[in-house]
Every structure is written in structure tokens, then in C-alpha cells.
Amino acid sequence: MTVIPVILSGGAGTRLWPLSWGDHPKQFLPLVTKNTMIQETLLRLSALDIGNPIVSCGEGHRFLVAQQIGEVCDKKPTIILEPLAKNTAPAIAAACCAAMKQDKDAVVVVLPSDHVIKDVKTFQNAVLTAAKNAEKGSLVTFGIVPTFAATGYGYVKASGEETDGAYTLEKFVEKPCLEKAQEYLASGEYSWNSGMFVFKASVFLDELKVHSPEMAKLSIESFEKATIDSDFIRLDKDSFSQIKGDSIDYAVMEKTKLGKIVKLNAGWDDVGSWSALYDISEKDENKNYVQGDVITLDTKNSYIRGGKRTVATIGLDNFVIVDSDDSLLIAKMDKIQDVKKIAEQMKARG
């Protein structure tokens, strides 16, 4: 069985400012290993029989995508350029059209470009399980086995007995309050919503036509009217701009009767903030993560990422310090979620 990776690379990653910003969002940065996050996304499928990858991104990132994918993959990628950001469902629909050009019965693995998965072998086995269910006509999502009562993730609920490695997808739920999250964790029926999916491209498009017909029509039309520019497929702007953007969850997965869940326990993280990156990083004896030319005195429980200059700290506890070529972030760890507001102010400045 050949599966075709569909990598979604349209995010801005502003919660990892000042490194993730503008033309270099987090998926193009080596935040966890020597490879960038989009490269790691593709490499973790390398042991499987995969077709030519499809990457969906914005105009400004097209050359970065081509370069970084080319550095780690000997297959020719299809790079689809979205003229506007319309959330995940239209991007996936266009990618499914491209996948069916490779193989009308293509099974696609839809992956965000900025996740961390530590246990790659377990992930690969889960992909194969999901693909077998997808071949039978299911729309499969991966439910991350929760390790704590997270309020920062949406959840998916499984029902029924496990069959062929998958459960029936009962429903999606939004990010809960702490009390609800604790209930979900205790029940054993809920998993974190991973944002990763496996299905036949044709089945997804058929379900999109049923549940979001106008989006399906315009997404397919934007692909059929696309122009080829060197190695890039430019979706038709007139068609694409008319789409009322929506996520795959709302447009299809919450409405379909074909949903399945494959549970995944493979050290997953969406690395949505500096504190999340601190949590998964190796630390020294003072529980600091330190990278670059850094000197610490009486400093603990902190994430310190130096740049081109020396960074020195004295008497800090629970801080995030990130130095880039043109900006320096200093924040308390428990306030780091507000870095997105800084990025918004920077954008407002132009």
C-alpha cells in the first residue's frame, strides 16, 4: 500500500516569537533536532512506502519548502500555493485533488508541519493501521492518549470496541475547563485532538461535497483552474477567495458518519509555545535548557536560547530567554502565552 503525505505548512507560529516570525515560521526552524520541523514531519514517514509528498503553503514560503523538502527527500514534491489563508479544510481538499492525480485510489496522511513525535516506530505502525481502515472507506484521525488533564487541546471521544486497531469516532469537543479535562482523563474515552488524519482522497472529497458542498465546489474548482509555475501549483485566486474558510474538524469530521480514531501514544507534542518546548527538551542539573553561548549563575527551571552574542543570567527562576538576530525575548515561564500579543504588536508596527 502506498500512502501519500500531505503536509500543511501555512501556519505563522507566532507563539514562538522571536525565532518564529514572518518569512520563517516555526516549521522551517530546527527547534528540536538538527532538521527543521517540516523536514522531521516527512522523515518520520521515510520507512514506509510513500508516494510523492504534497505540501500546501503560502506564496512567501514556496522556496523554503522546496529547498527544505529537497534536502531530505529524493521524491519530487507537489507544492500547492494557497493564495489566501482559508483554514485547513480547503487546503486539504486541494491536496486531495493533487493526490488523485498520482493515484485515483490514493490514501493520504494529512500532517501539520510543526509537531514533535518522539517514538517514530509507534507512529509509523499507527499510520499503517489507519491506512488499512482508510482503504475500507473510513476517515481516520489520531487520538493522542492524554498524559494529563490538558486545557490547551481539543479532545475526541471514542466509542464502541476496538476493531482493526480503531474505534468509532463519536464526537469532537472544544478545549475544556480544568474540571472537564479531569473528567475526560478519568473516563479513558477521550483523547487529545491531534490534527492528523488518514483517508482516501476520494472519500474525503465525497464527504466534503455532502457536508460542505460550496467549499467542495470552490476548492476543486481552484485546483482545476490552477496555474503551473515552475515546480509550484498556484490555486486559482478567484475561486479560492470565495471559499468560506473552515477547519477539517468543522467542515467534515464532526459531521461524517465514517469517522474512526486510532489511539496514539508516541511522545506527541504540537510545540505550541516556548514552555511546551521546554517541557520536551533535555535539561541540565539545574533544570535549565541551555543552547548557544550562555553563562548561568544561580539560575534554574529556565529555557535559555542564545543567538550570536553571549547571554548571561543571574538569579533567575522559571524564565524564558530567546535571543534572535534582531529581537530579544525575556519572560516569566507562566506568562509566556502572552508572547503572541507581542507578535501582534510587532505586526501592527509594520
Oligomer: single chain
What Rg, in angstroms, do the CA atoms define? 21 Å
Biggest sheet, spatial arrangement of strands: 6-9-7-8-12
Q: Report low-confidence residues grouped into runs of 5 or more.
A: none
Description of the structure:
- It contains eleven helices and 19 strands.
- A five-stranded mixed β-barrel has the order 6-9-7-8-12. Strands 14-16-18-19 form a four-stranded mixed beta sheet, with helices on one face.
- β1, α1 and β2 (54-58) form a beta-alpha-beta unit.
- It is an alpha/beta fold and 350 residues long.
- 32% of the residues lie in helices and 28% in strands.
Search tags:
globular; four-stranded mixed beta sheet; 350 residues; single chain
Spell out the blueprint of helices and strands:
Layout: E1 3-9, H1 37-43, E2 54-58, H2 62-72, E3 78-82, H3 88-102, E4 107-112, E5 116-117, H4 120-135, E6 139-144, E7 155-163, E8 166-173, H5 178-187, E9 190-200, H6 201-211, H7 213-224, E10 227-229, E11 232-234, H8 237-241, H9 248-253, E12 259-264, E13 268-269, H10 274-280, E14 289-291, E15 294-297, E16 303-305, E17 311-314, E18 319-323, E19 328-332, H11 339-349
Parallel strand pairs: 1-2, 1-4, 2-3, 3-11, 6-12, 14-16, 15-17, 16-18
Antiparallel strand pairs: 4-9, 5-13, 6-9, 7-8, 7-9, 8-12, 10-11, 18-19
